[in-house]
Known about the structure:
- By secondary structure, this protein is α/β, with parallel strands linked by helices.
- Helix content is about 45%, strand content about 15%.
- The chain has a 6-stranded mixed β-sheet with strand order 4-3-2-1-5-6.
- The longest helix has 25 residues, at about 230-255.
Amino acid sequence: EDMGRFFLDAEFTHFDSPKIISLGLVSDNGEEFYRELSDTWNLAECSLFVVGQVLPALDGGLFGQILSDRLGGKFELIREETKDDEHSCDPSRNPALAAALWDEEDFAVKLALEEAVGEQRVRDFPVLLSALADIELATVLRGANAATAGQVGADLSCWLEGQGQIEICYNYETDRVLFEQLLGMGAGAASLDISYVYLSLFDLWDGEAQLEAVHGSMDRGEPGKLNHHALDDARFFRSFWLQYESLMSRTQGDD
Length: 255
């Protein structure tokens, strides 16, 4: 019986007690499944990294506009400070940003005192919590991909039915756990023949040259593509791995 292989990515609220926000799956042949959850998470539990880099991509980018409207300059500061691995807050390194945030001095100082800005939650900042507390996700997430966990579990089970043996490839354990929890909510989940395979994108080669060669050949900057978006990253996972397999096949053929 044929094996159907699927590449998984999920976005979630925080590394501690993660709650799923969105889920993306892409098959070997390019079939796609993507949903945004409207009842599994809340803004108070989201890390600042999620606020700055994950949530703006939801609902085709409309959620980012909501955050910008509510938070103003604070939102731009969060996005700036979570875009890399940099965890220090120094508005002076960006004069234009500092000028735009002149009335956010107290907030900037608070961020500067945190060792890891991206790991702080919305609930840790009263100024953020009060600005976002009345947002109802079920009301604002209304795009075609938004649904409750029960609906997503049922849709996911239905989408995977008829695939025979199913191999779910993942590169982060939390993604797998959240996927299993969500799938378990679907009525047909018990009948699915699923196995899980961990595929690391970063531990494939002894040296970095081959890794960079494959990564460098993949454009993540095309219009409409969003990093830290579950479907976008699942697409990247699939493309990266297929290129890796092709590279290994050619290498072995040359031996």
